[in-house]
Write a structure and sequence with these properties.
The structure is a homodimer of 240-residue chains.
Chain A: E1 4-9, E2 24-28, H1 33-42, E3 47-50, H2 54-62, E4 66-71, E5 74-75, H3 90-93, E6 97-101, H4 105-111, E7 117-121, H5 126-135, E8 140-144, H6 153-168, E9 172-173, H7 177-189, H8 193-197, H9 201-208, H10 215-218, E10 228-231, E11 234-237
Parallel strand pairs in A: 1-8, 1-9, 2-7, 2-8, 3-6, 4-6
Antiparallel strand pairs in A: 4-5, 10-11
Helix pairs in contact in A: 5-6, 6-7
C-alpha cells in the first residue's frame, strides 16, 4: 500500500497552498497562539473565530463578542485577552465564542484555508492530534508559523515531535528535508526540551517583555485531548 | 566590543535583500553549483560570469565563450559543461573565463547582489572561507540556496559547519534560530557526513539521474584555498 506523504513547512513565506488542496495542514505556533487555542478548547470554549485585522476584531467587540487580540505579544487595549494560554481559563471561556487576532497565527490560518482540513497543533495536544491525523487517510503538512516569515526553533521542534509519532506508525513516508531536519532537531531537544528552547529567539523576546511565565506550560505534552479544526472559517472541536 | 552578527537564510524565498546591504553574504549550494565554482577556481579559472537566462548563455557561446549551463542537473545541449565539479578540470578552465547558468545558483547570485560583498561557500573551501570572513569586520549572512525555494539539508549542514567556525572565533554572536538549528544539524552530521547526507532529497535526485559520482568530493573539506567573490557582477578570486 502506498504510504501517505509527510511534509513540513518552516515559514508562511515557503507555503505553497496549491500543493495542499488534498492534504491535512497542521498549524504550529506554540509560543503562543496554537498553545492558547488548545488551552481554550481544553477549557470548554465553543468556537474561536480567527480574524486578521484589528479593525475587524474591534467590530466584533462592539457587537458583544469576547475578543482576544495581541500584536507582538501585547494585549490590545480594547481586547478581553491577549494570547497567553493562562488567559483562557474555564470561568472565562467555557461555552463562549471568542474572536481571536494574533500577530502571526490568524494570517496563517487564512493562508492554509484551501487545504482539505486544517487543525491546530502544539505540545499540549500532541497525543490526541497524532491519533486524529492517523485516523484520516491523507497526506499531511506540518506548517510552522515561524516569526515574521522567518524559521523558528520552537515550532520546528514541535513539528519534529509530531513527525516522529507519525513516522512510527509506518503509515507515512517522507522525502522532505524539512521534516527530516525537524525530527533530528527534536531528537536533540527531547531529553531537555525546556533547556533546549532557552536559546530560541522567541523565548528571549518573551522574557524581555515579561511574557514568559507560560513557556513551561506550552512545552507540556498531552495536556488535552482536544484537536481544534477549522470548519467554515471557524475553529471548533474536531468531534463536533 | 560589539560582536558581529551572524545569520542564516534557508531559502531564496526567505531572503530579505534590504537587510543585507552592509553584510557579507555567503552563497551555499553545495550539490553542486557552489562546489563546482570553488573547483573551477582551484583549477585556475580566471573568472566566471553568472547568467540567469539560457538565451543569454547561448549568446555568450556564440561569441566564443566557454559555457557551463544546466537545468535540473542536466547539461544543456549547446553548453561545454554542466555543473559537476569534475567538469572543471585544469586543462579545460585554467586561465579561461567561463559563463555559468544553473537551475538555482545564478538566480541567487543576482538576488544577493545588493549585499556589501558576496562570496561562494562550500565544504571544499571552508577553511579559507572562514579565514577570509574573519578578516572582514562585517556582519555575515549564510545564504543556503535550497531547492526550488525549499529548505535543504546539505546546504544547511554546510552553513552549520561554517557557523561553528565563526562562532568559535568569539567575534560573532547570533540570535538567529536558523543559525542555531544549522549548527545543531551539523553536530549530528559531522561524525559521518557522507552517511548523514544519504537522506537528503537532492542526494537521491542526483542518484536517480546518475549524477551522484561527485558527492563524496563535494563533502570534502579544505580542498582549496580559493574564495570566489563577486566583483561587478562577475566571480573572481578574492585576492585579485
Amino acid at each position: 500500500m502506498a504510504k501517505r506523504k509527510l511534509e513540513t513547512c518552516f515559514s508562511p513565506a515557503l507555503y505553497q497552498s496549491e500543493e495542499q488542496s488534498n492534504s491535512i495542514v497542521i498549524i504550529i505556533d506554540i509560543l503562543r497562539a496554537s498553545s492558547a487555542i488548545c488551552t481554550a478548547f481544553a477549557n470548554g470554549v465553543s468556537a474561536i473565530i480567527p480574524v486578521g485585522e484589528i479593525s475587524e476584531a474591534k467590530e466584533y467587540k462592539a457587537r458583544g463578542f469576547l475578543v482576544a487580540a495581541e500584536r507582538d505579544g501585547f494585549v490590545l487595549d480594547f481586547a478581553d485577552f491577549g494570547n497567553s494560554p493562562f488567559n483562557f481559563t474555564k470561568d472565562k471561556v467555557e461555552g463562549k465564542i471568542i474572536v481571536y487576532s494574533t500577530t502571526n497565527g490568524t494570517g496563517i490560518i487564512n493562508l492554509a484555508s484551501s487545504a482539505y482540513k486544517v487543525a491546530i497543533g502544539s505540545f499540549l495536544n500532541i497525543g490526541a492530534l497524532a491519533k486524529w491525523i492517523l485516523s484520516q487517510d491523507r497526506d499531511v503538512l506540518l506548517f510552522c508559523a515561524g516569526w515574521k516569515n522567518k524559521f523558528n526553533i520552537e515550532d520546528t521542534v514541535c513539528a519534529g515531535a509530531i513527525a516522529e509519532r507519525l513516522m512510527e506508525s509506518n503509515l507515512y513516508s517522507t522525502i522532505c528535508d524539512s521534516t527530516l531536519a525537524a525530527i533530528d532537531l527534536w531528537s536533540i531537544a527531547n531529553p531537555d526540551l525546556r533547556g533546549y528552547i532557552e536559546k530560541a529567539a522567541q523565548r528571549n523576546r518573551l522574557r524581555e517583555k515579561k511574557l514568559d511565565d507560560c513557556i513551561d506550560f506550552c512545552l507540556t505534552s498531552e495536556f488535552t485531548e482536544k484537536v481544534p479544526v477549522i470548519k467554515n472559517g471557524i475553529l471548533v472541536d474536531n468531534l463536533l
